[in-house]
Every structure is written in structure tokens, then in C-alpha cells.
Design brief:
Length: about 130
Amino acid sequence: MLSFSQSKAFFIAAAFATLTFSLYSFPVFGKQQTLAPEKVKALEEKTKCSFINVKSGTVNIRKGPGNKYAVVVKLKRGDGVRAVSREGKWVKIAARTYGNPPNQTFEILDGWVNNQYINGCSEDQFDMWRK
């Protein structure tokens, strides 16, 4: 049988190993990180470059497609995001972007924004979330 101090040491070692594995193996919600090149490519292929467009202050990013869902984060005008799809007047966001390629990093998000507060990055896709 393990003593209390041995049990405590074992628990700490197991917790550290689990945390280390999760940080290096999978995206972590709400943590800015540099993803492996293959994960960046997959993120870029499955999402659309977009940005937040609010007149002033911040916009609520919600847990689901509607005002009844909890706010997971607030974003401000010009914040870059990677958007996935639209459901009614709500757009699903997969990540927030920082910087520009090749030094771009991502903050994994699982949220929704009202389509009046998001635009596509390029001129030909500027209004794609409102059509």
C-alpha cells in the first residue's frame, strides 16, 4: 500500500503527464497556441477567414446559436477569427487568430456570433455570412 506522501507524488506525476499530453496533442479551448502545420492546414481548409465588425465596444461570442446561450468570450472590432458555418443568423466560430502567416497563432474557440457582427476577410467574401 502507498503512503500518503507516495500517493500524493503519484497523483501529481499523473496530473502533470495528462496535462502535458493534452497540451501537445490536442487544441485547448481558450488558449493561444501555435498548432502543428498539418493542424493549421486542416483548420484553414475547413474554415473561412473572417473578422469581427462591431461599431464600438465588444460583441458576445456565445455557446450556441442564440441570445439564450451563455457568453464564452467577448471580441472587439477587427479581431480575426476562423468561421465554420451559418445557422440562421448565427455563425459558428472555430478559432481566433493572432498575427499573420507564417507566424499566425490560434486560440481555439467553440462559439457563435450573430451574423451582423462578422465579415469575410476578402472583398469577394465580405458579406458571405449575411447572404
